[in-house]
Amino acid sequence: DLLGAVEPLLPSLREDGVAVWVLGAGPVPPGVLALQELLDAASEELEPEDVWEPGDMNDTCLYIFTSGTTGLPKAARVSHLKAVMCLSFYELVGASSRDVVYLALPLYHMAGSLLGIVGCLGIGATCVLKEKFSASQFWDDCRAEGVTVFQYIGELCRYLVNQPQRPGERQHGLRLAVGSGLRPDVWRSFQQRFGPVRIVETYGMSEGNVTLFNYIG
């Protein structure tokens, strides 16, 4: 979907030795690697461990966008060790395999992909992946999908609080909301309006090595 934005830069990227990979249906311009064709041709047999197992857990696993709070968004290095540690995220905040997690955060940021998707894999929970957050549809989605855990960025909760009141706002199974950047006034309004949802506020940085959890609320 984003190839059109990159295409004018392809000549300069090639000059700098930057490889461009595209996932999705072709055709793709010359010099661009079409991943879908390789995936379709790949064997389903798992390669021996020495092929895919990292030699050092501190080696780079992937690069991921920061949110830009300290400047323009940039690619941050994430090690294999940090990616594996994200498997424990939901366990740390009190979720389990019985939970259904609602995720509407962008997957090119750490919160959505590593904490959200990888976190669900870590505990074996069901993930309801929403392409785009909708404050007006949120509680209907929660009821329809049996959602018990919501991963937020603080503004999402503010959007919900700012919605016109509607019947049945407290008729849901949501028990836990976990995320970052929730203002105290929105926190109080959220719980007063939507019921005794436990909120665990966390703070970390894609390129940092310390994470904080507000367990006591």
Automatic annotation (TrEMBL):
<dbReference type="GO" id="GO:0005886">
    <property type="term" value="C:plasma membrane"/>
</dbReference>
<dbReference type="GO" id="GO:0004467">
    <property type="term" value="F:long-chain fatty acid-CoA ligase activity"/>
</dbReference>
<keyword id="KW-1133">Transmembrane helix</keyword>
<keyword id="KW-0472">Membrane</keyword>
<dbReference type="InterPro" id="IPR000873">
    <property type="entry name" value="AMP-dep_synth/lig_dom"/>
</dbReference>
<keyword id="KW-0436">Ligase</keyword>
<dbReference type="InterPro" id="IPR042099">
    <property type="entry name" value="ANL_N_sf"/>
</dbReference>
<dbReference type="InterPro" id="IPR020845">
    <property type="entry name" value="AMP-binding_CS"/>
</dbReference>
<comment type="similarity">
    <text>Belongs to the ATP-dependent AMP-binding enzyme family.</text>
</comment>
<keyword id="KW-0443">Lipid metabolism</keyword>
<protein>
    <recommendedName>
        <fullName>Long-chain-fatty-acid--CoA ligase</fullName>
    </recommendedName>
</protein>
<dbReference type="Pfam" id="PF00501">
    <property type="entry name" value="AMP-binding"/>
</dbReference>
<keyword id="KW-0812">Transmembrane</keyword>
<dbReference type="GO" id="GO:0005789">
    <property type="term" value="C:endoplasmic reticulum membrane"/>
</dbReference>
<feature type="transmembrane region" description="Helical">
    <location>
        <begin position="107"/>
        <end position="129"/>
    </location>
</feature>
<feature type="domain" description="AMP-dependent synthetase/ligase">
    <location>
        <begin position="48"/>
        <end position="211"/>
    </location>
</feature>
